[in-house]
Amino acid sequence: MKWQVTWTAPAQRELAEIWSAARDRQRLTEAVDRFDRSAEQDPRVDTDRYGNQERIAFAGPLAIVFRIIDEESAVHVIDVFRYPG
Question: Which UniProt keywords apply (predicted)?
Fold first, then answer.
């Protein structure tokens, strides 16, 4: 099954702020691409529960918080922040 990954507007704005301030922009871009590809295949692999309905993935220097909507085969990214990983 292929999942549809969507970044909410607040998550996109936060990612843009992180990217604008970063010295390692290529690393950030690669981390987001890696997350998107992985989540499209199976959003539960290599992720952890985070709160009641959210999950979190650690991709390079980023922590990505998202919700899975099973009935829509959708992944909604709701937050992202730098993680010292």
Answer: Toxin-antitoxin system
